[in-house]
Amino acid sequence: MFCIKVENLAFKYGDGFELGKLNLRFCESEVTAILGPNGAGKTTFLKCLARMLKPLEGVVYLGSKELWSLSLNEVAKIVSFSEVEIPQGFNVKVVDFVSTSRYPHMSSFWESSEDLKAIGESIRKLKLESFVQRKIEELSSGEFQRVVLAKILAKKPKVLLLDEPTLHLDIKYQLEILKIIREITKEEKLVTIVTLHDLKLASMFADKIVLLSNGKVVAFGSSAEVLTPRNIEKVYGVKVKIIEDEEAGIIIAPLIK
Amino acid sequence: MTQLEQYYELRKKKFFTITLLLTILLTVTLLLSLSVGSVNIGIDKAFLVLTGYVQNKTLSYIVLNIRLPRTLASILIGASLAISGVLIQNVTRNALAEPFLLGLSSGALAFIALAILLIPSIIFSIHYVSIVAFIGAILAFTLTLMLSEAVGGSATSLILAGIAVTSGFSGISSFLAFIVQAKLNRPFLILLLGSLAQILDEHVIVLGFTFTLGFIVSLALAKRLNAVMFGDEHSLQLGYNPKITRLISSLLAALLTSVSVAVAGIIGFIGLVIPHMARLLMGNDNRFVIPLSALLGSILLCLSDIFVRIASGGLAIGEIPVGAVTSAFGAPFFAYLLMAKVRS
Predict the structure, then answer these.
(1) Partner-chain residue, chosen from B8, B231, B279, that has the shortest CB–CB distance to A84
(2) What is the spatial order of strands in the sheet that A65-66 belongs to?
(3) pLDDT tens digits, residue range B25-65?
(4) Which DSSP category does A219 fall into?
(5) DSSP H helices in chain B
(6) Helix, strand or coil for residue A245?
(7) Do A206 and A44 meet the contact criterion of CB atoms below 8 Å apart?
(8) Domain containing residue A179: CATH number
(9) B208: distance to nearest CA of chain A, Å?
(10) A30, A95, B79, B274: least CB-packed within 10 angstroms?
(11) Is A132–B7 a contact, with Cβ atoms under 8 angstroms apart?
(12) Does residue B240 sit in helix, strand or coil?
């Protein structure tokens, strides 16, 4: 079974923010949600896994291999991260953007038929067939998140790192995108790690939850284990009541004094 | 065949068709350029002289020794400046960027003028002049980037920083150029607005060499440029170190610009207008944008130079600077892009 193992990982920014030490394990076919208040270190942690930030201490294992012993290109073939900035004024088409994701696999100048197959599949999976010729700058937030997801899947990665895939989406698209992420994780046996803000959504779609606060892991486990009134109060400073419902799962209701 | 494969096939066909058409257009422009001047030679005759079928001493001298170097220089400079624009727009992720607007051209010319004042004999070596220009272009680009970072690093601050640096170096180079012209008694001020009036064979060789190098390396960088266009982190995800992409592209853009400036002075806006035209034709993929920009840039500058010669001949007032022509149509285009940006 393919797993990512994080051992004693620590990172420090120039401004003094510290992450760690973290000891975690993420395995294939599992969606793990990283939760925590703003500034808890969620994105920093993802970037450490994506080989974008070099940890101060500790080791990350991708399967049996150490992350930093692999080249940039080798990691790029396996790991897909969702961070993107769309340039203004370049008239980028959806299909051109999605196809960049194949570059780590391409040794030739043009896309091979295998590359085109992977691009086509991910476009179909996210139902973007009618979008391929649209300009990225003109998409709505919901459409854009789907395009980003299509892009990172076109790579055929083993690891999906998603930074706030539900940002700026309304409830319908939040549910839709998380459903797709979950399905793909199971189908393709991916290791999926997403940062989220919404506790309820995390409880619905994640197999495991990591609760981060000030760069440290407060709790790691199933949503029932992690999302307790005690943990939530400790991390967010808000008292909540957790109600179990047959249809809706758990409901996390804040208590306002 | 899937829909996507069809699309890719069609796109390649479209690219090759456009490339073919532009190549034909370039050939016609080249012949037209050989036929236009104080002595009018028909296009057909120019072709025959060029290919060696007509051997007339006077005609051969005019076409091959006077007009051909100038025409080739306009083609190579147009292509070089267009590719320089593509590189700079991609690495700064700014569709309004180009070598002239970001100060590279003025920096190069200011350094050339300074070097000539210090060591006048340098003016006779295009190689030394190019090296000095290269240093000036890199210095100016670095200054623009630093100034832009210092005021927030946004797309607009980059353009404003570029205008500040361009103004500074333009002032210096105008001042120095005036002294150079007076002291050395050579036409030098005309380089401030770009001119193709003093082209020598060795200029064409240097231009040909740098353009070939620039074209091959930027094509090899095309995918890296596509990656860095969506930000450093996107580039890293695709396995390319964005710093390396940016360093090589910036050096290459500076080289292409500085050799052009060393030969013909400041010719603005080619680097801005042409990449946009190429993207309009084929989208943003640099594997298409780079070759198309080279073709479009060479056609445009060659046409501008033909216009210069016709207009100058007609007005009988000496030669109009070619940079004035490119600015005249480039500046409104810049204004249009600026408005489109403000609206979005």
Answers:
(1) B231
(2) A18-27, A3-12, A57-62, A65-66
(3) 999 999 999 998 878 888 888 898 888 888 888 888 888 88
(4) E
(5) 3-35, 43-51, 57-60, 68-92, 104-118, 126-150, 155-184, 201-220, 222-228, 232-237, 242-264, 270-282, 286-315, 322-343
(6) strand
(7) no
(8) 3.40.50.300
(9) 25
(10) A30
(11) yes
(12) coil
- At A225, list the tokens: 């284990």
Domains of chain B: 3-343 (1.10.3470.10)
Per the structure, the count of domains in chain A is: 1
CA-wise closest residue to A13 among A53, A59, A58:
A53
Higher pLDDT, B198 or B29: B29
List pLDDT tens digits, range A27-60. Answer: 999 999 999 998 899 999 999 999 999 999 999 9
Give me the residues of A, 126-185, that contact B with CB < 8 A.
129, 132, 137, 152
- Does residue B43 sit in helix, strand or coil? helix
Contact state of A76 with B239 under an 8 Å Cβ cutoff: yes
Residue located via tokens 């193992």: A5
Q: What is the pLDDT of residue A229?
A: 93
CA angle B93, B327, B25 (to 5 degrees): 85
Contacts of B231 in chain A (CB under 8 A): 83-85
In the predicted structure, residue B76 carries a pLDDT above the cut 80: yes
Is any Cβ of chain A less than 8 angstroms from the Cβ of B277? Answer: no
Relative to beta strand A216-221, strand A208-213 is: antiparallel
Domain of residue A51: give its range.
3-254
Q: List the structure tokens of A138.
A: 């003109």
